[in-house]
Write a structure and sequence with these properties.
The chain has 166 residues and is α+β, with helices and mostly antiparallel strands. The protein has six helices and seven strands.
């Protein structure tokens, strides 16, 4: 199991995961399903240090095992006030049929050193208050609950964690 950078090498495996997420009602990967090369270009643009207003530089990695893409993690290299409240440095999702098997915990465990390499030693990560699985993933990776808030987008309660990477 490893994190891989998005590329055309993984196109069919990623699109299989994207289609599964879509079949379960997810919309995050609709752009990839419609235009995979365009999706890769957008990810590459997101790595640039200078971003349009309200965006921060970041990157995405895919969790690969035996040729299959199991999950995706998005890393943000800076926080805005809004991201500190909801979103944080890390966002992730596991394909629906692979949830509750430990892949989310592994995904975050593999991603945290990448933030440390970029000089980020205190990582903000949030999840919806009712997402017990995500809360467990964060806590298993050293997340300490530091507060709660309300999402301005969904109106849902949000748990806010810090993970110290030393």
């Amino acid at each position: 199991m490893q994190l891989v950078e998005p590329s055309v090498v993984w196109e069919s495996a990623f699109l299989e995961m994207a289609a599964e997420c879509s079949a379960f009602g997810g919309t995050r990967y609709a752009a990839a399903l419609n235009d995979f090369p365009g999706y890769l270009r957008k990810l590459e643009e997101g790595r640039r240090e200078v971003q349009p207003a309200a965006r921060v530089p970041g990157t995405e990695y895919w969790l690969e095992d035996a040729g299959k893409i199991l999950a995706c993690v998005r890393l943000r290299f800076r926080l805005t006030a809004e991201l500190e409240q909801e979103g944080g440095h890390v966002g992730y999702d596991v394909r629906p049929t692979m949830r509750r098997r430990g892949y989310g915990t592994q995904l975050l465990r593999l991603a945290l050193p990448l933030l440390r390499e970029r000089g980020i030693f205190r990582v903000r990560i949030t999840c919806d208050d009712d997402n017990i699985g995500s809360a467990k993933i964060i806590e298993k990776n050293g997340g300490m609950l530091s507060g709660r808030g309300v999402s301005p987008e969904s109106g849902k309660a949000v748990r806010q964690y810090w993970i110290d990477l030393g």
